[in-house]
Predict the structure.
Amino acid sequence: MDELINILEKEILQNNKYISVVDNINDIRESLMNLLQDNNLMYISNENYKEIFESSKIDYHFDENELRFFHEMINLDNKMKKFIVEEIGLNEEQNLIINGIKEKIKKSIDSFDEKKSEDLKEKNDIYKKLLVKLKNNGLSFINEFELIKELLNKYSVPVGKQILIYETINSFNLKTRDKFKSDPEKVISESELEDTNLDKESVSLIFGDYGIDFNAIPGELANKLLKHGNIDKIEELLEFIIKNENGLKFVLEKYDVLTKILLYSNVEILESIIKIQKENGIDGIATKLPTILFPPVYEKRSYYMKKKSKEKTTHEAEITGSYYNFKHNVEILNELNIPASVVYEKCSTFFSHSYKNVKKVIHNLALYGISAINEQDFSRTPFTVFRTTDLLLKNLDCAIESGCFEYAKGNLSRLINNTNIYNRVKLAYKLSKLNNVEFKPYRTLKNESSKLFLTNEFICDVNNIFGVTVQDTYEMYQAEKFNFSNKELYDKIIENSDNDSISPISIEDEFIKKLDSLFYSEEMPYIYNFNGVVISRNKVLRLYETLISDSNIKPDEELLLYVITYDSMLDKNEMENIENCIKKIDLGAMVKC
Amino acid sequence: MLDDLKKIGLEDSFCDQMIDEFGYDLALNVACNYELVKTNIETLKRFGITNIEQLILKKIDIFLMDNEQLVKRFGKYNIPVAAKLINEDYTFIDDLV
């Protein structure tokens, strides 16, 4: 599948080059046509030459003589040019050169077709959608086979490999079909349960046989059991639970959990949990995390909050039940060769984290060269980091831009929540430079530990002199923001995306390659340095990739500035620095077709 | 029941904070273990740790450890010094426990 993905990425990049050339021609068409008239070429200025030829994406294939002609013309003043044209006249050689240049200009313009450019834009849309489908291989493929066949033949992929690719795609389709039929891991809601309307007396008798006083169960829970419970299933489950060797008897007094087990779980699930516990040396985990005993369910929870009015507070439906998270998280640990028992000792709640999130965190940290797991000592891994979601990447970028990347790497648990720590450090650094004061943000520990610990003046949220809230710190920093004409569109796309993909789509992009050549150094990975202003390179790449993967977005200077300054605390001076750096790139001077 | 969070012995308003921080599923697990959490809170207070609520929100796993295990881990260190470090910066507990 990698081969097909690489082919698609190549096609998209090549098409983008053609499209950007056509866009470029459209921008300078009038100037080009003007140059073809009379002797206008002779009067070309340095600025015109730079705009039309040097900055252009088109390769006109000018030879040495033609380039020398341009060089001589742009260095002559207009009086001399007029004298040559009108008094002396051009000789045969000069006329040949000028006509040659005009022919090459015409040829270059004619070889790029606007209709083809529009077709390629449509093709790229289809390629991008297919790419997304292939990377998120849970989706179905119906109409794409002809296109895939065409691409594989174009790149002469051997028949054997082609067959493998089709087999893989077919397997995606089968998975999707099966999922559509019945997803065992989907979240169940109470409304899906059958109404059985059990007789209270009968149920009480059964519960009594297992030592449970049915009348002690809170009314709401008891009513659910009576409305939706299945007598045979209830008996089967209670029989399993009371067996000492299963270690589940504690659940008989946890009525909320017991009700959910009896309504939504089954003996197979409980058996599976006991087996996993035994195989992985994590006996007793169900007592710490009883919700692993049933699959995910939607539940409207009500929680009594003691307010002045003593009102009952009811909340929206939420999901509880982490059997599949438990099962898959143990699988993830096994794949990583990490003993589940070590994790259980250190962080039992890890097993109930969303396993999809665990995978995402591992992937996202790897983007920044960070191993989620402490390979020297598993037990020192801050497993709470797996509880985080979107804030992880945002906090990492903020740490990088504040010079706190090493700190963040050693304190992963500081990445999981909204935090203003890194902004405060950046502000303190700025103030120390202004006031010529020593800047020492880290504690010096007697044991000379290599791990960094920020001093309390940055960590403490209460009455912090560097700002309690992000807004406070931004104000003290005198932070400003650019006004982008497409901000609303960009914001919407970013907010609706995970923004965690960095692939050749961004890395091989001409704009990014230009940024890399001027502002990136392998000696200081993960940053762009715009004349002293540090920006997280990963932030730029992943946001840029999200945006240019959208068919409505055309890469330009504004887009670059948007991704570079996104969520960055920058004052006016820094903004100007970045803007000047981007302007110097001269975005027209890209790799020529 | 989720209401068992109150039996931990902290302010009712903090219980709501716990639910918001943990999400329903984890909050229910903590509620089911309120006795253990309460015991571990008492132990940490005896050690001299004062930022209990911050630790609960950020490091709930400490409070779900078996009490003997918790005491044993702290026993490796000079407890007053460890408590002082944790009171200043709760992330110190990552290195200790």
